[in-house]
Specification:
The chain has 2 domains: about 120 residues, P-loop containing nucleotide triphosphate hydrolases (Rossmann fold); about 80 residues, no CATH class. The chain contains 6 helices and 10 strands, in the order βββαββαβαααβαβββ. The strands form 2 sheets. A 6-stranded mixed beta sheet has the order 6-7-8-3-9-10, with helices on both faces. It has a 4-stranded antiparallel beta sheet with strand order 2-1-4-5, covered by helices on one side. The longest helix is centred in the last third of the chain and has 18 residues. It starts with a strand and ends with a strand.
């Protein structure tokens, strides 16, 4: 895998044929980059992330993530891609009838790790997000902030090459927000994980070297 984790060239994304959301844009994401993406509501921030984890194929142009071309992606390549990325959703997307421990184990189970390895890694991460004492609870027994911290632990469980975070702290209290940004900063600094985070506000106290992309009228520009 090269140092370029995401490559977009002349990329156009849309849900409807003649209504592009992202238009003819070009950018690269490199290994160890920490990138914030901002823009007005409806500007295409979440749409861009969806394209990166294989839900929305490019309408025009070229997009590759972790060496996988996303134009007409095959099922086999989609499985490969999702073994190398972690996704953090604003609405958590935890499995309601699974324990928090099993939710965090999910990427490892998919990757075929042994049960002992899955449990050990889940407990390590739950300890990091201050939720080890709630490992046997189901999501609805946790607060919103706790559920999002569990979702971050799940996204990090398999040591992904790339983390895609869609408003990861949008509805959270200050404590949970701080825990999540610190986890993402740690993964970036210690594991070399590339991080792309959509946010309405870049955290002012997060001491990390980052790049800032702004989406405006379908175009993506980098703030220097």
């Amino acid at each position: 895998m090269s140092n370029i984790v995401v490559k977009a060239q002349n990329l156009t994304l849309s849900y409807k044929k003649n209504e592009p959301i992202i238009k003819n844009t070009k950018f690269d994401v490199n290994t160890k980059d920490f990138i914030f993406i901002t823009g007005r509501s409806g500007s295409g921030k979440s749409t861009l992330l969806k394209s990166m984890y294989g839900v929305l194929p490019p309408k025009e142009g070229f997009l590759s993530v972790c060496g996988v071309e996303l134009n007409n992606i095959s099922t086999k390549n989609k499985i490969f891609l999702r073994k190398h990325i972690g996704v953090i959703f604003q609405d958590y997307k935890l499995i309601d009838n699974w324990t928090i421990e099993k939710n965090v184990m999910l990427p490892l189970l998919i990757a075929g790790f042994s049960k002992d390895v899955c449990i050990a890694q889940a407990h390590k991460l739950l300890k990091h997000v201050k939720l080890l004492h709630k490992a046997d609870k189901i999501p609805l027994e946790l607060s919103g902030g706790e559920q999002q911290r569990a979702a971050v632990a799940r996204a990090l469980a398999h040591n992904p090459v790339l983390i895609l975070a869609d408003e990861p702290t949008g509805n959270l209290d200050e404590y949970s927000s701080s825990v999540i940004w610190d986890l993402l900063k740690g993964a970036n600094a210690q594991l070399g994980t590339s991080v792309i985070a959509v946010t309405h506000k870049i955290p002012s106290l997060l001491r990390v070297n980052y790049r800032h992309l702004i989406i405006d009228k379908g175009e993506i520009d980098e703030v220097s």
